């Protein structure tokens, strides 16, 4: 018996050793991961020692670099030249965010499957087919041709690799251990991939195929009625209404009939290797920025604020730092993987950005000569295509997947209009393919001293188009709708375009100095919230659809009323939860409910709404009812007409729906065409109200505190892996909504809040959800979350020298090239 037990124990041990050292799907072997010597146990970090002073070797440096850390883990980098400055930035960013940099680079390059297997193959194929690599290569060539961006890229790359090269296996970020792979050397093109990824996020969506489907089904008259090119109910454009355009306008291209490219659409065919639909454009959630002039400020100098709304993730999209060299002292946030500061301030100026949502992603219907796709029709001739072979390596598979992507002069032919079962027929024309050196914009903004420097810096910028808000110590404020904007006829790109017709091509570019901008407007402030760039007098076409106007209306209303404002005044506006949408439409809806038979429970909900102050506060039950009800009402109006075909169709905008409800109560669109009865506005208002209450009850029980808005909205901040739930943030309690300035939804919101008081000694405040470190075992992983949740800001430490004393400073790292000390 003892012998049998011994044999069993030996067999069990051998079995465990075998299992623990075998990979489990995309995960690595558990043995190395659990090892106390090299596994995840090694990833715990203690808080920085205030007296800590490390000296590290850095072979490529030209001179000594000092990095001081403050009590929130933010590095303040002091270098004696630009190369060393960016070297140190690359080094310290990799120290805190190496896995994030690796993951996002792989996502842009279409290389996730190398570490995650077939689960991410389609994502990789989408990146390859979209031409992310093509765009990154074109931009790298431009960046390396300019000595300033070349030095920054090479310095940053050397710094990242210096950090990677000194890592032992035990030092790898925990995600590398979980997935069983090691960091690879950083390359300059990785920075370009990071820029491509941001361009994809902010300008990589299209709705023209959906719009073309609507056009084919309903015709131009209905499209013009339901999809106007400018809001019908209200708008408060970024450049104030009535602004005069003081420039000599270029000739605008001639408009092409809309049905031309739509005539060959089919709802029946789809290429056999077609990928799933890309994430569609979504409406309503975006970013804010503004600056008030000295006349509205208690300090006598401008104050600037910015809160870009993006995915809420751990680690944060942003990385906070200060960069100091002989001709620069700039503070703010960078994007991990990209040198310099993207949003921030220096001694003289401050700037911030929001997305323009310019129409810089168009689809062209391509006509191939034959199935070889070697030639395509354009300008009455057959032109040769270019072909690019994409090779995707998949973890666990011996042979890579090879795919040939066909390129025309428009771009890669990767999308489908369902007119061919053999191959895609739509080429993507996208600003992400346009060669440029947008990095120089931020390089020059980091060093800028005045308004003229700001305007010059913007001339380098390609995309994604951004609203650059600005303020300086000369008491100027300004905002520019900036980017390389194609010269188009009005509505070009609203529908599918004919790839055979040269008149449908982008006809050059709007001159950079004719991009919409305003300096020191009489109203005393500038602002943007992703709304329409201009009123309808601007001579060029930027887009026909922007974010709804509610956030802009609220911001402009409050800024107009401000006087003797300080940084806290602007912080409070960033956290404003007031719903302009509810104030606009709810009285109308409640007046209809007054004539509707309701149960006691439904009546109680109606009374709750009637007593609401339109504040989307975390505890509000009325907010939950309204935010469940209004989208349901919209679907009740439009689903029967726009969700009843095999292909996707665009829905009318929020503004257009509001106009219908308030101004056109007898329109045919209230009738559900799928029922024999003829529904009216009161019918669908009451039915959607009752359905919304039923939905809330089904998910949260009877109306009670369980219906509080923060519980229903359930905002969550997830780890970038999306699957490592222990690395997610704990549940958070926030208000806001897509129609409020504080536009926080379930997974998107203010990724960085910043307020800067300019003056002889600038004071700045900022915060993002999470912390500096990407290591879940670090005390700086979640240390900023509670303050962000409460709407608070940290004062940003802005140092003038590496030896400056401040009680918030903790440890120090000195980077030295050992060759400097050899004889």
> Termini separation (Å)?
73 Å
Mean pLDDT: 91
Which strands sit side by side, in order, in the main sheet? Answer: 1-29-2-3-8-9-10-11-19-20-22
- According to DSSP, the number of beta strands is 29
Shape: globular
Residue stretches low in confidence (pLDDT < 50, at least 5 long) are 12-21, 29-42
Radius of gyration, in angstroms, nearest whole number: 28 Å
Major sheet, described briefly?
11 strands, mixed
Beta content comes to 15-25%
**Count of helical stretches:** 21
Helix content: 25-40%
Secondary-structure class: alpha+beta
Short description:
By secondary structure, the chain is α+β, with helices and mostly antiparallel strands.
Name the descriptors.
823 residues; alpha+beta; six-stranded antiparallel sheet; 29 strands
Characterise this structure.
- By secondary structure, this protein is α+β, with helices and mostly antiparallel strands.
- Among the domains are: 2-34; 580-614 and 621-707.
- Helix content is 32%, strand content 17%.
- It has an eleven-stranded mixed sheet with strand order 1-29-2-3-8-9-10-11-19-20-22. A six-stranded antiparallel sheet has the order 23-4-5-26-27-28, with helices on one face. A four-stranded mixed sheet has the order 17-18-12-21, covered by helices on one side.
- Strand 8 and strand 9 (328-334) form a beta hairpin.
- The model is unreliable at 12-21 and 29-42 (pLDDT under 50).
